[in-house]
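Limitations

Structures in this collection are predictions, not experimental determinations, and the ligand pose is part of the prediction. Treat each record accordingly. The example that follows, with zinc ion as the small molecule, is included so readers can see exactly what is and is not provided: the inputs are given verbatim, and the output is the predicted complex.
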Amino acid sequence: MIRYLRDMQDAMRYALQVAYRDAIDDEKHKIPSPIQLRREVREWFYSRYDYARHHVNPVCRTAVALLRSYRRNHNGELRIPEVRRLAMRIDGELFRVVGDKVRITLQPDHYTWLHINTSNKHYQEYSNGRPSELLVTDMKVCLTFVVGDGKKPLGSRLMAQDLNFRSIDSTGAVLSSKPSLTGVERQPLREIVRVQNDYSRRRRALQKHVKDPQKRARKLKETRGRQRNRVRDALHKLSTKTVRENPDATFVFEDLKGIRKGGEKKGRRLRTCLNRRPYRMYQSMAEYKSPNGTLYVNPRGISSECPVCGGKLEHPAWATSRCGTCGADYDRDRLASLAILLRGLRLCGPTPFAASADASWRQMREEYLYPHGMPEAMGAGGTDAAGAPNGDVYECTRS
Ligand SMILES: [Zn+2]
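Predicted complex:
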């Protein structure tokens, strides 16, 4: 093992040199990614050592991490850090826990065995988890496990949320062999809207009044950072509150992870939704704070297909969804939360749920209708925030 650690220390020094040279040669002094680095280091590594090829991965990962943290701790200055410690992280692919021993693959088909001290008071509990990493130094060996399979159970009801950053609209349902809707509610996001508008006003003032371009850029960056922090704070409070009030609920959200890629085609969607980050931020906060699992549904067609009858939706005004088949004008965001809920129910099992035939829907239908006599100007999206040019607006609407 000691020979292995020494060799890896040498390999690390070599990888650091390569990564450093790459960063110096790069126009923007970018440190290469571990994958780029591996491309440059692997032939050298394979020809020099007879270790299993996979060992080059942790070497490159660690080298990149060392360089990055050196630069972070030295105000952006880059130099090759010294590798003093004899230490190496071994990936899960290269070792296996067998009884009270751990088997490490140093060379292909050549194993090294180490004893595990199973008398650690948590060992019995933790060892049920998946072994994730082995840290080997010349003094000790640490074995880490990932406890649990990362999957939380579903709650006893579903709560579908449509996020607009003007409001969050939720539709709930009891999850049973015969699901039924429990209610729809709207929570306005005044605090977040206020912060967004406040900062976009400040930025406009800066653009106008600060003449020195460097100073202006710095000030603008500062404002953006503060805005982000305040939005994040507000989202934390909101998600904590929502999870606390709904300890038995499984949240259902639109899956926004893949949307950016397809965004080019959906030009309008991309334009109206300049920054989707707070959306995702809220979702992941609720996901990790909730004791229950979270469902993500495909957002495709949510605003163009009527969840009640399957008919085509039109939007005569921004906040309205009109279904010709139902003959009704629905509140767009509330209806969207219903559509998300129904997709979530479909994920939960074979129980078919047709809103149009369901008693709970008929009781609640009124609450989903758009209140007439309150003409809405075309512009939930047309606030002053959405007009800001710099793309950091959190206003997000569905096209
Ligand atoms: Zn309809």
